[in-house]
Amino acid sequence: MRQDKNKAISLRKGGKSYNEISKILGAPKSTLSLWLRNIKMSPEIEKKFLDRTKKKWSKSITEFNKKQGKIAKEKAEKRQQVAVKDIKRLSKRELLLVGVALYWAEGSKGRWALQFTNSDPDMIMLMMKFFRNICEVPESKIKASAQIHPNVTPQKVVNYWSKISGISKKNFHKTYCRVSPSSKFKRPSNKLPYGTLRIEICNIEMVDKVKGWIRGIAK
């Protein structure tokens, strides 16, 4: 017992924690508290011990946060998967209302053409169903252009958006690269890996029709 106590004192002065000493000697921490209550570390050893403790604590907190983040993400995914089942296949009228509402929020209010710009591929696909199935716009009348960032090539972007939208690559205008002054050097280059797509339909009659649908919803 005396030998263990002396060993414990030596380990403590060397900067070991109670947990570490307990594992080495197999002694309970309650016993160590009695043996080591008056034992002081040297200032240098104490600093190293505190630094090591802070590092372990920081690592533990980081791992805990990652674990909690993963759990929260899994719970969110389960809730979303349940909610997905609430939405059945959209009827033609529902697609009309959803498409008009999205255009009202995100589309251009110009006089000569319908223009819808977004970076969300799911939203682009939904709006293309609206333009094709509700507005009955011929494929030849649907044009597109992409705004990209310097980190991606125009060809890659056109290939991507053509596949997402179903718009023929020959109906794409020249891709242009532009970074707004407000986001320059602030937004990560991978935030919008394929930039944004603008769908353009030059048809005054259809513009008036969509505007009428918007007024109908507003009323």
Keywords:
alpha+beta, elongated, 219 residues, 60s Ribosomal Protein L30, Chain: A, four-stranded mixed β-sheet, 2 domains
How many β-strand runs?
4
* Residue fraction in strands: 5-15%
Shape: elongated
Task: Tell me the number of structural domains.
Answer: 2
Order of helices and strands: HHHHHEHEHEEH
Strand order of the largest sheet: 1-4-2-3
Describe it.
14% of the residues are buried. This protein is α+β, with helices and mostly antiparallel strands and 219 residues long. It has helices at 2-13, 18-25, 29-36, 43-84, 92-106, 121-134, 154-165, 204-218; strands at 114-118, 142-148, 176-177, 196-201. Strands 1-4-2-3 form a four-stranded mixed beta sheet. Helix 5 packs across helix 6 and helix 5 packs across helix 8. It contains eight helices and four strands, in the order H-H-H-H-H-E-H-E-H-E-E-H. The model has no long low-confidence stretch (mean pLDDT 89). It folds into two domains: 2-81, no CATH class; 92-218, 60s Ribosomal Protein L30, Chain: A (2-Layer Sandwich). Helices cover 58% and strands 9% of the residues.
